Amino acid sequence: MVKKAVKKTSKKAIAADHSTEEKIKEAAQRVFIRKGFAATTTREISDEAGINYALLHYYFRSKEKLFDIVAQERAAVFFGGIYPIINDETTSLDEKIDGIVKYYTELLIAEPGLELFVLSEMQNRPERISELMKANRGLTKAVIARQLKDARPDIHPMQLLMSMLGMILFPFIGKELFQQTMDMEKTAFTKMLKERVKLLPPLIKTMIGI
């Protein structure tokens, strides 16, 4: 009976630890997005998470470590999420382009500010992104690369990826500027972003001539 009670308590403790860590990371992401890394304090993150400051320090020790963990996890979601799409043997190149645009647009709308963490990782720790891509077979070994080679052997797969990411990401990176310049409400601009799910694929396909 004692062993069972200890085991049950241990499971509860692990679940509580995981819940607290996730709460801190989610709060940190919101504050980092609002204020930027330099202007954010660990006190603000603990207040946002609704926990004791000492507890935050117990889990993550420093703001730098917390930012690194959050940025790395979000970058993994960003880059790792497309691998089922680009390695699908049952879909065409056309369908993969549609799927990539849809995935990233919906992801960035659902997670405001995610693009900032991705850019941070790409700029400051490109080796992490490279390791992640290699672990997932890499772009050049993906099914989409083979399909692109069949359709346009003169175009490197990275050209396609860079062009697509540029067209998808830039409106999200500059959304505050665009909204102010066009005097547009957030809901109206989000509607415009959603429209790009249908607008972008034909432009990309025309650009690469397929």
From TrEMBL:
Q: What InterPro entries does this protein map onto? A: DNA-bd_HTH_TetR-type_CS, Homeodomain-like_sf, HTH-type_TetR-like_transc_reg, HTH_TetR, Tet_transcr_reg_TetR-rel_C_sf
Q: Name one Pfam family in it.
A: TetR_N
Name of this protein:
HTH tetR-type domain-containing protein
Annotated SUPFAM superfamilies: Homeodomain-like (SSF46689), Tetracyclin repressor-like, C-terminal domain (SSF48498)
User: In which domain of life is the source organism classified?
Assistant: Bacteria
Q: Which residues form the HTH tetR-type domain?
A: 18-78
DNA-binding region positions on the chain: 41-60
Which key words are in the record? DNA-binding, Transcription, Transcription regulation
**Keyword Transcription recorded:** yes
> Is Plastid there in the keyword field?
no
Q: Could you cite one Gene Ontology molecular function of this protein?
A: transcription cis-regulatory region binding
